[in-house]
Amino acid sequence: MLRNIRTDTKQISVPVSQAEFPEPFPIGLEYSAPARGHWTIAHVALSLPEAHIIYVCPQGCLRGVVLTAAELNVSQRFSTIEVGEENVLEGDMEDQVIDGVGHILEELPYTPPAVLVFTSCIHQFLGIDLNMIYSTLRQQHPGIQFTDCYMNPIMRKGNWNPDQKMRRQLFTLLKPAPLDQHSVNIVGNDFPLDRTSDLYRLLNDNHYTVREVATSRNYAEYQKMATSAVAITTRYPAEAAGKLLQTKYGQKYLHLPFSYDYAEIIANLQKLSAELGITYQPDPNAITATDQALAAAQQVIGDTPIAIDYTFSTKALGLARLLLDRGFNVTDVYVDEFDKEDQADLAALKASAPNLTLHPTIDVGMRIAPRQSSEKLLALGQKAAYFNGSPYFVNIVEGAGWYGFDGIQRMAKLMIEAYNEPKDIESVIQVKGLGWGCGCI
After folding, report:
1. Which domain holds residue 405?
2. For the Nitrogenase/oxidoreductase component domain, which residue ranges apply (predicted)?
3. Burial zone of 372 (CB within 10 Å; 0-12 exposed, 13-18 middle, 19+ buried)
């Protein structure tokens, strides 16, 4: 008999004053909202130029990643091997991967420099010998680099979740090379670092070459990332990638977290300057311009309720804190869990805004949550827009390429635009990866 497992949505939302770290909501049956603009491990893998991606999964798992490749218009770089019941019963899972990959490579009209092979939960459940599989593939195809990737939701509660693991694996294909002391990697970002950002300008003004996967035009340019002397991460999920570049390739690793806190922005740039031996002084004009941009946005938006979701920024709590401090009416934040970089912001919000409401996005009860706000609401992020039925939203994923005071200024301008210009919410949020800077359609 079917049973309605939840009818009351109030019990799944909590005031920030009652939120526990790191999991403010109970773990259970999960729901996936139809807001698809955020990036997935498939997008991350496909960002590696000229590489071919092969997913080895049951049919149900393949549907989403096939759609991702199609919407990105890169189906020619994407192949699948379907795992069926007969493969499980016959015990030929290793042979299926080896033979399947070989067949795909024979049929391709070109030889890719690298192949990223994704295995899935079923391979882990059955204890498949992945080391043997990759060793055999490398022996059979010596001109191609292979790396192991994972379409594996059961990793979500382990040491590294699939997102962290994928960002790390993206750099396992680099070939060790002599280091260039004036070359710096920006690691683990989905979008290129904005050329106007404080971080990029500091490096560029001091004649450093900035390398990123997102700006690599081909596989050879990607390989030049092995020559950088410094690896910088700005998002928490990329830390595993930064540590790999330090231990395997000898690069100095610096974590300079994306932040909305003025003091932290300045401290990060000072830390980088000290490491590189260059001079940095906070620009009072940049700080003034940021204050003015926020004030201009607040004057337009006024007391209009604002909802923020975690797909908009990896620092959703920090953003809520900034906006509340500047007089904005932030009422809701949509976030499923916290990481270690959220602790200070969580503590501050408990003291300064105890009634700020936190909502999950994956709790099954959210499937019946009301979708329409009774008043105009500005949403920062697609999921906040969806759960409130608001056409007034800023369509940004993971902070785009923003960093520092420049990023806050750009956000403030987009908040004004979003407040004044409603979007067709349904046509925007249903497209996978349709965030800032992603040309999926």
Report:
1. 296-429
2. 44-351
3. exposed
The reply to whether 422 and 343 lie within a common domain is: yes
> Residue with structure tokens 């050879």?
220
Alpha helices (H) in 250-283, listed in sequence order = 262-276
For the chain, how are helix, strand and coil distributed in percent, rounded to 5? 45, 15, 40
295-327 pLDDT, tens per residue?
A: 999 999 999 999 999 999 989 999 999 999 999
User: Residues 258, 354: one domain?
Assistant: no
Can you read off the two tokens belonging to residue 292?
């003015």
Residue 437 forms part of a structural domain: no
pLDDT tens track for 335-350? 999 999 999 999 999 9
Is residue 220 domain-shared with residue 345, that is, in the same domain?
no
Task: Report which of 60, 78, 56 is spatially closest to residue 123, judged by C-alpha positions.
Answer: 56
Query: Contact at 8 Å (CB) between 341 and 367?
Result: no
Q: What is the DSSP letter of 363?
A: B
- Distance between CA atoms of 137 and 131, rounded to whole angstroms? 10
pTM confidence score:
0.91
How far is the C-alpha of 33 from the C-alpha of 429, rounded, in Å? Answer: 10
- For residue 60, the tally of other CB atoms under 10 A from its CB is 7
What is the CB neighbour count within 10 angstroms for residue 379? 30
Neighbouring-strand partners of residue 214: none
